[in-house]
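>> Question from a student workshop board

For tomorrow's exercise we were told to take the sequence and the ligand below, predict the bound structure, and bring the output to class. My setup keeps failing. Could a helper post the expected result so I can at least see what it should look like? The ligand is S-adenosylmethionine.
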Amino acid sequence: MRFLRRARQVLGQKSPFRWAPNWLRARWAELRKTERITSRPYALMVEPTNLCNLKCPTCPTGAGTLKRAQGMMDMGKYRALLDEVGDGVLDLTLHNYGEPFLHPHLAEMCRLAAAKGITVHVSTNGHFFTDRAQVREILTSGLSHLKVCLDGASQQSMEVYRVGSSFEKVKEGIRLVVEEKRALGRSLPVIDLQFILMRHNEHELGRMRALAQELGVDLFDIKTVGIDDDDPDFAKLAEKYLPRDADKRRYELTPDGARLKAQVTKCNWIYRTAVINWDGSMVPCCHDTHDKHVFGNAFLDGGVTAVWQGNKYTAFRKALRTSIREMPLCKYCPEVEGFDSLYRGEEKVVR
Ligand SMILES: C[S@@+](CC[C@H](N)C(=O)[O-])C[C@H]1O[C@@H](n2cnc3c(N)ncnc32)[C@H](O)[C@@H]1O
Ligand code: SF4
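>> Workshop helper replied:
Here is what the output should look like for this input. Compare the format with yours to find the bug.
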């Protein structure tokens, strides 16, 4: 029963007549590894903003190492992209590098996507749940999945990575969200407490589980820590943040640094998910932090479809088909099929 309930939540409410023809074409292209495709993306990752209130040291936004302009997505342009491809889209992730709740129209962004039957996911550092009316606005926006990041069971450990954070504010914010969701009698969004397991907080795992229970979230989720492979201090950061428990690391240590425990052999992002940054630039995936492989601009170059089916994307699909293992971008990608443990330390449904 729980599985069926989750499946219904995840699949959203959308007539197959709207999404299935495109989905079938995209899946067929992926199976055959076709380079030039006629389908559109059936998932989106949209960056409302790449500005942030925190300074997490291995996040390029937080570390201040992001090599692209910062700003907020324009609502007119967001509407236009949903109008263009939204009918075929099943799933939307509304964050990339930055804090989505800094965007003044985040709830409206969720509402517009949900109105098209799209399942919407948001991850947040959790500092914006202080006002009951605003919390209700986001809970009733059609959002399906709200991930709140709490990376420690105390202020002391949390602020080692979440620099500038307030443990109390996030904890009480989650409490308010859960309380309001119950008062509204809603099953969605799924409230997911994510804990990034690192050296300084691994001893708090038990306390975090207990806290998740106490707060009454729906899901408690443990994520392995990633280090920006473009960071010149990669080795130092790895030493500081990788947990002692090697099972909960996505990397294994080598004499010259670290490498992923397994390497990607194929990529489904380039057939399924268009990543659209706040300014419209389209890149292969969320690992292209610094816009190294920009295929075009959804707002300037004729729309999402034109870029998705264009020459630069086609050339990239071709390159991945033949030499994904040599591609520097893909070297540290944890999305290796069959290796969930690269991404997730453990996952537990609380209720
Ligand atoms: C870059 S953040 C942007 C969204 C939001 N600001 C947040 O922190 O949730 C996107 C996701 O990456 C996660 N994240 C941040 N730093 C990470 C790290 N070093 N390793 C793995 N995941 C990380 C966040 O917890 C979040 O779920
Ligand atoms: S809160 Fe999110 S976007 Fe902000 S610095 Fe931390 S990980 Fe990066």
